[in-house]
Structures are given as structure tokens and as C-alpha cells.
Amino acid sequence: MIFNSVTYLLFLALVVCLFWVLPQRARLWMILFASATFYGFWRPEFLVVMLASAVTDFSVARRIEAGTDDRVRWHWLLVSLFINLGLLFYFKYLFFFLDNSVATLQFFGYHDIQSPTLNIILPLGISFYTFQTISYTVDVYRKFIRAENDFVLYGCFVTFFPQLVAGPILRGSELLGQLLAKPKFQFENFISGVHRILYGLFLKVVLADNIAPLVDVGFNQPIANLSAIDVLTLAFLFGFQIYFDFAAYSHIAIGSARLIGISFPENFNFPYMASSPREFWRRWHISLSSWIRDYLYLPLLGAKVRDKSIDGLAVAVQEHSKNRRKRLMALFLTWAIMGFWHGANWTFVMWGLFHAACIAIYRLIEAPVSIFPRAIRVIGGWSVTLPLMMLAWIPFRAQSVEMATEMYGKFFSVQEWLYLGMRENTYLVAAFVFVWMTLTFGVYEYAGRWLRGYRWLGFLGETIVLGMTTALVFVFLRPINQFIYFQF
Amino acid sequence: MLAALLIGSAVALIILNSSFVPDETNFEASATLGTATTPVFGTANGFPIHCSGSGDAENCLAGQKSRRATQAALWLGNSQVHEVNQWQPGETNAAPLLFHSLGRHKLDLLTFSFGNASLQEHYVMFENLRQRMPLKVLILPVVFDDTREEGLRPDVTDFAKDPATVKALSETLIGKRLVASVQSGVQTEPLSTANDTSGMTGTLQERVEKSLNGWLEEHSRLWQLRPEIRGWLFIWLYRARNFVFGITPSTTRKVIPGRYRDNLAALQAILDRSRKENILVAIYIAPLRAGVKIPYDPAEYAKFKVDIEALARRYGASFKNFEKIVPDHLWGTKASTTLGEEQELDFMHFRYSGHRIIAHALHELVIQTLTRRPAVSPQ
Fold first, then answer.
1. Nearest chain B residue (CA) to A471
2. Core-most of A181, A374, B110, B316, by most CB within 10 Å?
3. Which residues pair with B140 in a beta bridge?
4. Nearest to A220 among B3, B5, B184 (CB)
5. Count of structural domains within chain B
6. Residue B283 lies in a domain
7. Closest chain A residue to B1 measured between Cα atoms?
8. Which residue of A4, A5, A188, A259 to mutate against B (max B Cβ within 10 Å)?
9. Taking the model in full, what pTM does it have?
10. CA A182 to CA A162: how far, in whole Å?
């Protein structure tokens, strides 16, 4: 089910009403049924795949917990990883793997071999729920949590509808306890949940969906028609689009869960205001980067892992293993996998490696720049980090590595800086959104505190903002586009 | 927090409800043309002879069939062809006038025009329509403004989905790219309300969402008005932009190099195909309001005219510069496209008398094209 639809709003209202009138056990059954309905509105047959993943980890985790021999526990963990990653590989990477194998064979002269035709549909949210179930089994293996004996509760954890399709990716320790507890209705939670949903819908239907046509047209133009300024503008525009789109999903997920008294950790925190790559990864898709940190990067370094989906990959930037080469290898490998997780295409790997390179360079310059005053480091860092993070989006959006390379190539020719290749509105929208976002951050960070001293002024401001947001969401609410992260 | 949410939302919805009334508004025309121009699409014997795209093309072609036309002319253009400035009852535009005058020479005429039509869009329409009518002469106005356009609008996109058209387009680089853009589903303008559920096509939710929307539209006037309110918001933004940046009709529109190249490539593809299919082509530089500063860079505009003439000559097409053919007093003003002003100069659309002049000039041009020697091969 798509959040930006009347169907979802009606569905959510029904679920929330039922939740607060039902007794505890019935609530869990209702959440499980609602989550299956939510998912089944897309393609009911793929519920089976999700169920297979869930049942595997439920059973394996219990065996891991029951096991006393470490080798047996380890083997059961491998079984879980094999099945989960096998499903992911089949649905998401099989065609890519075969296609690249055929290309390699053709390169070595086996020209008779052709790429097979496969008609595999990627189940919605498979990358998200696979990571969530893997983390559950690994956490049981690490003895961070106990294996769950109640399949209904466990089923709710895996399929919980607000975060099922595009996160935030939650740990067992973060959600199972909350599902089991008997939350009391709190009016503040309810209002803040409505706020978050409204704000999320605004980001999606008013901003992301209206920026999308400009980005689509820009990226579908022949690259020869684009100047260096156009490439930069498109990078910013897509950066805004994907941020608004994905942050919108997280806001609606957080708000929806809050309506039934469940708290999710934040997934975004003004990432484009980061003054370094480290800070960016503390603010962007925090639950995924925390997952990668705890289940990939830190284990690769042999470092102590954490059990919270907060702080993202910032720790990976800070991590100072003595073996510099090993640290660098782990960094690049982690980011390549992070890219590959997003999609079966070399463009995503390129995106990951771009970030790895930014972080590697940041590690080198971090100490020398620390001599500057804080204000200069923050403003200077922001003015370098922002365009770099935006430029990283180019391979993420480009159709091929060649296209991304060609777009980057524009920056190295003086001639390419001397003309504009798109309609004036494209630049205006990019500039307007940039100013709007910076002002919003300023208001949120600074003016909010100041306004608290003037109660009526604050109330008036809030009323105007909420009124305009409601009106715009009312006018623009229509499911013309899926959320970008649905494809991952 | 709750009070702010309730008061804000209530006031916003009351304002929306009281500010908008149902109205059939063409937002694109209203934003770019203002209200002092009137679109006129002529008919003959109950069939349209002037259409705007794939939506009404069948009717135009059916009319031609009913007239048993053995040879025809096709006039492709932008809004200058169908809009009449300061239109009065009983007046028409050049299309029906030319239709009747060419009819006396046993040459049928179909006209297709829509706002800001680019040469790339003309190319797609030409490749489609030439296969469905006994085309003898193509009349093609070339407008500098329209070389700044890129991509295809939905009404043209449909033409590019026809297999025979795809095959023909695929013979050129620019054609291949246009086909690819259609196949990738990229929209160059906001989706119409018919595509409101395009994010969930083929799912159970699509059916549910459509029924819910239908119910809401039936029971809430405000819900029904949402597409219109969206349109008005975009117009307001457009006008605010013009106001803030001081953009007026005479503000210089610079050439966009890549788009210019693509549009000229499309023109070249039209000329090349016409030569191969023995279709005669009459190209003209579209009339432009004289007596005031033109909204183009003079050097770029001069180069544009040279480029078009060179292409026409290279492919043996007739070429005329009608830039100054419509005298200054036959142009008019239109509703302002910025905030706070009533009227502004209209650079693109002239009055009925101007249409009579252009119809007469085109008649001469077509007859001249029909009677002159066949086209020579390009070098």
C-alpha cells in the first residue's frame, strides 16, 4: 500500500481505532492481519516470500538459542544467512549476475553465449525485511536478545506495516518489547503522530513529486546537451527529490507507529546541513547505515559492535584501527556493499565508492583542519560537503556508469561552464528549494528556541504553517509516484 | 499543538472552499497567453479541419476521407496558428481561410497546432500523419521560441507509440531518442488527473483508490476542484516568478544550445523524409511583432534565420521570411502574466486581419511550391 493515498489514510484510521479498543493479544493479531493486508494490496503472492524469510529466522533463532555448542550455533546462523541472502540474490541479483557472467565470457571470446531472459519481479521491500530478519537472528546469536517463542509477536516485528517496505530498519531490541508492552493512549503521541504524517505527506506530494518531472526530463536528455552547471543543478535537484521522498516515508512511518504508541528511532536529521561526510552519515538513512556498521563494517574490522540503530556510519568514519590497510579495505568494501544493496547495478557500487573516497579523504584532512576555529570548520565544511554529497547522487540516478562518468566529465572542461542547457525554471526551482531548506533548518534549530519566549507569536506561526501544509497536502495528495526506495 | 493544527486546517480549508468555483480552465493557455487571445479550431461539413494532437486527429482524418481528398497539405504550427487576438464573433483564423482557398486548387488542408510546439514534436506528428493521408505539401512555420522546447507532450506521445511511426522515427538519431523517451515514460509536463494513480498501476490499491476518489468527488465539491486548484497554484507561481524577476514578454529568451541542435536535427529529418517521399515542403519564419524590442538576442535570432534558410535550400524546400508580414497595428495585448498588471504586449498572436494576411501569403507560397521544379538532392 502506498502511503500517499486516500486508501492508506482510511486504512490507518481503521487500524488505530481497532488498536485502542482491542485487548492486548487481539491487538497483535490485528497488527499482523493489517500488515499482511497492507503488503497484499500490492501483490498478495509475495506474502509467501516474506513468510518464508520470517519462518526461517523464527525457527533458526530458537535453535541458536537452544544450542550449547558454538559450532552448531554458528552453523544455524549460516543456514539463516544462506536462506535470507539466497532469496535476496534470486529476486534482486540473479539477472545482474548472469548478465555480467555472460558479458565476461563474451569478452573472453565465447560470443555464442547470450544473456538469458528472466521475468523475475522484485518483491516490494525485500531488502528491508531481509536485513531486519537477519539482524534478529544475528542478535540472538550474539546473545543481545532472546529468541522469541511467540510467532504472532515475531510476525508483527517482521511485517509491522509502517516500516515494512522502506524502513526504518529496526532491531529486535527496539521493536519486540514495544509490541509486547501494553501502551496507554497518550494524546501528545497522537497529535505528534498526526503532525509527522502531515509533514511527511507534504514532503512527498508537494515537494518530491513536483521536483520529479524536472529530474526525469534532465536525466533523460542527451548528456551532450548538458553543461557543467546543468549537471550540478540536476545533482542538487535529485538530491532534494530523494531526500524529500525518503524522509517523507520515514516521517509517515514514524507518525503512523506513534499513533499506536510505538516509537521508532529517527531516520533523517537535516543531512544536507552536515559539515563533514562523517556528520552526513550520522544524519542520512540512519537505520541502514547503523545496520551496515553493526553487521558488516565493525565485524570486518574485528571491532566491538553496537545494538542500536542510531549514529549511523559516523562511527565507521571515526574508527581508528591500527591496521590502516585493513581499515581502508573494510571502508571501501562496506560502501561497495552498501551501494550494491540499493540495486543490482554498477552505478550503485559507484555511488558507494564515491562516498568511501570522500570519507577516506576526510580522514586524512580531519586533523590538519582542526586548527581552524569552529565557525570556519562548520561553514567551510558545509560548503564543501553539500556539493560533494549532491554530486554523489549522479551515479545513483544515472542509467549507466558510462552516463555518470560522462556527466562528471563535464566539470573538467572550461567550455562546459559557459552555457545553460535547460529551461530557466529548473535552476530557479533548485535555488528556491535550497533556500527554503536552509531557512527551515535555521527556523528549526534557532528560531524555534527564540519563539518559545513569545507564546502567541509561536502559536500564530505554527497555525499558519500547519494550515498551509494541510491545504497543500489536501490539494496535492495523489499517488502519482511510488516512493523511490520501493525499488530497493 | 492541537489547537494550532485544528485552527490552521479549518481556516485553510474554508479559504480553499470559498476561493474556488468550478470552471473549465485551460491552465497552460491561461498562464502563457492570458485571456485576450481566443483559440479557434475550424470545421468543414461537420468535421474538424484544425486539430491539436492525437486526441482529435482521428476526426480530422475522417473528415478528409469523407471529402475524398486525393492530395492534401498539412500545416503544423504553434499557438500562433490557432489563437486570435481580440477575437470578435464571426471571426476565424487563417486555417479555414487557407482550407477554402486551397480547396479551389483541389488540395485538401489539415492543420495541427498547439502551444509552444517544437520541431521535435512536429517531426513525430509528420511521420505519423504522412502515412495516414495523401500528403503532397507540408507547411511548416519555424519559431525561434519553440527551438527552446525539448521532449514530447502527451498529445504527441501517443503518435510516437504507433508501430509504423516508431519504425520511421528509428531511422534517425533524433527520432530514436524521441522513441526512447516515450518508451521510458518521461513526462515533460505535470500528469493529468487521469494519471493520478500511476504510482500503483495494476495493483488492488489502484482499484480501491479510484473508487474512493470517485466517491469523494461525488460528495465533496472541494475534492472535485483539486485539479483546478493545483492549476491555479502553478499559474500563481508562474506569475510570482515573472513579478520577482521582472520577466515581461520582451525579456530576452536566450538560445538553449542542445535543444536548438535537437530541434534543427528534427527539422532536417523532416526535410530528408519529405525529399525521399516526394513531399513538397514550404517553410516560413513565423510573423513577429515589429515596432518593439524583440524578445530574442539579435545575433542569435539572425543566426537562427540563416540556419533555417540554409537547411531549406539544402533540401530544396520553399522558404519565406514572413517575420514582418503582419503590420504592427494588427497585433494586440493580452492579460498580464505577472502580478499586479492588467495588460501586456502580445508578441505571438495577431488579430483576425493578421490571419487573413498570413492565409493569403501561405496560399501564394503553397501554389508557388506546387508549380516550381522538383527538389534537388542535398549535397
1. B12
2. B110
3. B283
4. B184
5. 1
6. yes
7. A191
8. A5
9. 0.86
10. 19
Asked whether residue B212 is assigned to any structural domain, the reply reads no
What is the reported pLDDT for B379? 41
Q: Which residues contact B69 (CB under 8 A, 6 or more apart)?
A: B108, B133, B134
Q: In DSSP terms, which residues pair with B51 in a beta bridge?
A: B112
* Residue A111 binned pLDDT confidence (cut-offs 50, 70, 90): confident
Phi and psi at residue B124, to the nearest 5°:
-65, -45
Residue B287 lies in a domain: yes
Q: Given A195, A285, A320, A342, which residue is catalytic?
A: A342
Q: Are A388 and A276 in contact (CB under 8 A)?
A: no
Backbone phi and psi for residue A428, each to the nearest 5 degrees, phi listed first: -65, -45
Half-sphere exposure of B79 (CA within 13 A, CB side): 21
Beta bridge partners of A415: none
- As given in the structure block, the three cell numbers for residue B183 are 518508451
Between CA A74 and CA A80 the distance in angstroms is 10
Residue B38 φ then ψ, to 5°? -125, 130
Residue B124: domain span? 23-189+218-371
CB < 8 Å to B5, chain A: 191, 194-195, 198, 466, 470
Residue written as grid cell 533458526 = A60
With beta carbons less than 8 A apart as the criterion, state whether A148 and A235 touch.
no
Task: Tell me the C-alpha distance between B55 and B158, whole Å.
Answer: 9
How is chain A split into domains, by residue range?
Answer: 6-182, 189-476
- What are the grid coordinates assigned to B267, written together? 527539422
Rounded Cα gap, residues B64 and B103, in angstroms: 12
Give the one of B3, B5, B258 whose C-beta lies nearest to A225's C-beta. Answer: B258
Q: Which whole number is the average pLDDT over A245-273?
A: 93
The answer for residues whose C-beta is within 8 angstroms of residue A122's C-beta and 6 or more apart is A91, A92, A487
Beta strand B331-335 with B343-350 is antiparallel
Span of A188-202, B186-200, B318-332 with lowest mean pLDDT: B186-200
Residue-wise pLDDT for B84-120, tens only, equals 998 888 899 999 999 999 999 999 999 999 988 999 9
Q: Residue A354: pLDDT above 60?
A: yes
Measured between beta carbons, the chain A residues lying within 8 angstroms of B205 are: 1-2, 5, 7, 41-42, 479
Contacts of A422 in chain B (CB under 8 A): 256
Exposure pattern of B96-132 as b/e (b: 16+ CB <10 Å)?
A: bbbbebbeeeebbbbbbbbbbbbbbbbbbbbbbbbeb
State the DSSP code for A134. Answer: H
Select the residue from B208, B215, B239, B264 to test the A interface by mutation, using most A Cβ atoms within 10 A. B208
Which residues does chain B have within 8 Å of residue A10's beta carbon, measured at their own beta carbons?
A: 212
In a domain, B10, yes or no: no
Sign of CA dihedral A81, A83, A89, A91: negative
For residue B296, the cross-strand partners are B253
Q: Is the dihedral of CA A169, A339, A397, A363 positive or negative?
A: positive
* 3-state secondary structure (DSSP) of residue A480: coil
Q: Is A285 a catalytic residue?
A: no
Q: What is the dihedral of CA A446, A449, A453, A454, to 10 degrees?
A: 60
Residue B41's CATH number: 3.40.50.1110
Give the HSE-up count for residue B41: Cα atoms under 13 Å, Cβ half-sphere. 20
